[in-house]
Amino acid sequence: MKIIIINGPNLNLLGKRETEIYGTETFEYCFNKLKEQFSTIELSYFQSNIEGEIISKMHEVGFHYDGIILNAGAYTHTSIGIGDAVKAIPTPVIEVHITNTYARELFRHQSYIGPNAKGVIIGFGLDSYKLALYSFL
């Protein structure tokens, strides 16, 4: 099974950015734990702060991977293009968020990804990625 985690803007700063909201663990540390725990899955990771790069990566992998775990960060609430990319590819996408977006600012309650995703997991910290991986098993 081949699954990719795609992270959007500012998620490269996990562990340093707003630690009271996102915690002190880096995504690289989380990713290495996931690779150990799900060793039978060919797991890869891509992060970009650029909307078009996220869309291009989804086009690249979205026709031959078994799953995509997508945390588009703030683009979730603004990018019709990323939502359309999820809709355009046959690979199932799980939308994830580290925080409970419904407990945050009102603009974070809208997702352009969720309506086209296989499912949405929010609010479980970095364990949201683990839960998304379980959904593909």
UniProtKB/TrEMBL annotation:
It catalyses: 3-dehydroquinate = 3-dehydroshikimate + H2O. It is an enzyme of class 4 (lyase). Its EC number is 4.2.1.10. Keywords: Amino-acid biosynthesis, Aromatic amino acid biosynthesis, Lyase. The active site is at Y22, H97. Signal peptide: none annotated. Substrate binds at N71, H77, D84, I98, T99, R108. The record marks R17 as: Transition state stabilizer. One of its GO terms (biological process) is chorismate biosynthetic process. Belongs to the type-II 3-dehydroquinase family. Homododecamer. Catalyzes a trans-dehydration via an enolate intermediate. This is 3-dehydroquinate dehydratase. The gene is aroQ.
